[in-house]
Amino acid sequence: MKFYMTPGSCSTGIHIILEELDEIFEAHVVNLPAGDNFKPGYLAINPKGTIPALVRPDGSALTELVAIAYWLGRARGRGRLWPQDLEGETRAIETMSHVAGTIHGHGFARLFTTPTFSRAQSEQESVKALGRLIVEKGFAVLARQMDGRDFVAGAFSVADAVLFYAEFWADKTGIALPAPLLAHYRRLLGRPAVIRVLKEEGYDPSRLGGAAPQPAAAG
Ligand SMILES: N[C@@H](CCC(=O)N[C@@H](CS)C(=O)NCC(=O)O)C(=O)O
Questions:
Q1: Which of 60, 62, 108, 117 has the most CB atoms less than 10 A away?
Q2: With contact defined as beta carbons under 8 Å apart, do 114 and 128 qualify?
Q3: Cα separation of 206 and 203, whole Å?
Q4: Residues at CB less than 6 angstroms from ligand 1
Q5: What are the helix (H) ranges across the chain?
Q6: How far, in Å, is the centroid of ligand 1 from the Cα of 42?
Q7: CB contact at 8 A, 167 and 184
Q8: How far, in Å, is the centroid of ligand 1 from the Cα of 135?
Q9: Residues with Cβ within 8 Å of residue 79, at least 6 apart in sequence
């Protein structure tokens, strides 16, 4: 398979899944700051110009992080990274949609690609502040969901790798994680596949996960 990714981006979640599955794949780094995602060569693979994208053994390209995670979870490794029961499957989809759609798409995107939300220079800081608020509210909801659980849906699944990339971004941007999410993040930071991926993407895993948890909101 061919995996189109950018180190430290949302594709890290898919990279972890590939590594957890022991997949053999070609990694193609797409340089987002250089705009390589909008060059014809990449648009021929993913017309949306986003990463990640995965070209599968039959040559077809799959886009959208949640769909790629779902397909890898179900179709590869005899389905061992996909929950086996309906409730687990449903909760995995619920969490992945929340992370990719809300926390990433509405929250972190406002922090990382602020001008795509408003071109006005005077609004840049307020767009970022709103993004941070959306991320924090999203994490507060997820923290209640994850309280008392080691993983999103029973055993480790693709949904944990998806949640991980948002927790990783919180760490990188100095957004404090609520205690249940910090515990989940640290749990994943201890997995050999996660350590391998972070090193391959240029990070030192031993320097991650050190932040104090966010105190629980009053009331
Ligand atoms: N809906 C897409 C969004 C993925 C996404 O936003 N990827 C970012 C990197 S984390 C990206 O490709 N940004 C470049 C751009 O949108 O121009 C998905 O879920 O896969």
A1: 108
A2: yes
A3: 9
A4: 9-10, 32, 37, 49-51, 64-65, 100
A5: 11-20, 40-43, 65-75, 86-97, 109-112, 124-146, 158-173, 179-189, 192-200
A6: 13
A7: yes
A8: 17
A9: 73
Does some domain include residue 25?
A: yes
- pLDDT category, 219, cuts 50, 70, 90? very low
Q: Compute the half-sphere exposure of residue 122: CA atoms within 13 Å on the CB side of its CA.
A: 0
Tokens describing residue 64:
């959208």
Chain mean position to CA 56 = 20
Q: What contacts 194, CB < 8 A, 6 or more positions away?
A: 16, 19, 164, 188, 205
Looking at the structure, do residues 42 and 7 belong to the same domain, yes or no? yes
- Domain CATH code at residue 103: 1.20.1050.10
91, 73: one domain:
no
Cα–Cα dist 180/127, whole Å: 28
Domain that holds residue 49: 2-79
Ligand 1 centroid, distance to 100 Cα (angstroms):
9
Reported as a single tens digit per residue, the pLDDT across 195-207 is 999 999 999 999 9
Q: Rounded CA gap, 154 and 151, in Å? A: 6
What are 145's two structure tokens?
């969901």
Mutate to test the pocket of ligand 1, among 10, 43, 158 (most ligand atoms within 8 A of CB): 10
